[in-house]
Amino acid sequence: MSDRGGTRNGGRIGTLAEARLAAGFGALLRRDLRLAVRQGSDTATVLAFFVIVVSLFPFGVGAEPQTLSAIGAGILWVAALLAALLSLDRLFQADYEDGTLDYLLTAPAAPSLLVLAKCAAHWLTTGLPLVLLSPLLALLLNLPNAAYPALIAGLALGTPVLTLIGAIGAALVLGARRGGVLLSLLILPLYIPVLIFGVAAVEAAATGQGFRAQLLLLGAFLLAALALAPFVAAVALRQAAE
Amino acid sequence: MSARLHAFANPARFLRLARRLLPWTAALAAICLAIGAVWGIGIAPPGKPPPEGQGETVRIMYVHVPSAWMALFVYACVAAASAAAIIWRHPLGHVLARAASPIGACFALLTLATGSLWGAKMWGAWWVWDARLTSVLILFFLYLGHIALTHAFDDPARGARAACILALVGVVNLPIIKFSVDWWNTLHQPASIIRREGPAIDAQMLAPLFFMICGFTFYFFSVWLLRARAELAALRTRALKLRLLAS
Fold this sequence. Notes:
heterodimer; A: mainly alpha; 0% strand; B: mainly alpha
């Protein structure tokens, strides 16, 4: 009897805590999205950077359609990587400077969940627009038609990984001198696996091979990053706020 | 385990141990390196049969292979020290991680330089995007990031903590990066340049190589202890300066 009561009680506390966690997650996600929409600069800057970097390559390597379609996948992925990096150093910076971060860390929600909410907002405002814009740029680079599904699916799976790994770096460089430059040094080596398999998927698709294996691996990276990165970033945030 | 480790949390006790160990590791390093260098460069044959087109350049191996081994081993040491610093809040963990990382970067750079020199003769190019060389290049970048993060903060304690987390993230990522690079390399590498299996190492070359590896390892331990002592001294100087300013 008492046992049953205990379970019921524990269950209720469990759902209450869960509800509170979900509310905290939702509130932070909504706040960050609203900030991004009202300030509106980050998304536009990142997209402009992406377009400009990609449009520089024809000047560098020559405008022959064959050359461009051969290296187009690599150009798009490297440009997406750099564009993601561009906005990452501000992921926690503003909250760190005005003290919101200390407040968030004392909230009842788990810090890793808060990191996850901030990452979700960051991806929705910078990663997703990149994915949506990529077919247009692929057109400029003369990518073969067969490569489009692999490019879009790969970027859709890969850009959240970039955000999640980047969150660790962004948390680590809080309060550092020249944090932005330092961030690229810390994070870009860790991006190499995503780059390799993202480009490999597009190349496989362009030559008419299956690209399922590469996408599955990108999916595996995403799952691993979802499980581990918010936790590590939360540890880094806590030591930054100490 | 942690209790035994914490016996060395006292810097004075660690310094005593370091002072007692240092002559031994330094002497062992000198002996091993002398034997390995003379045997490897002067006495051992350059392979049986001598690898075609390589001649005496094969002796670069006696520096290249130990350096590559040390580049990995030092990263493991940095990660272990960082783990001790984070998990048990062991105060020496920070110092040891901070002291080891530049040594590891030097070994990685030495691996790249000797690999490049060897490659110039063997492959006819100063740099080839070989899977192993590329992995060492990325490892070198990870070291650079670690060193830069350590020194990026006005408060050294903050830099040390951040660098520890980065070192552990790197350890989780290293196998993934290595696997990805291997996979990428098999896709893109024209197979004619690099033989998958190098010539099997002759037993007469294995012995001096072993001495060189031991010598490099003891050399690392000696420099590590020296650098850790210097780091502790620097921390102490800083603390004294701060106290002087406060008074």
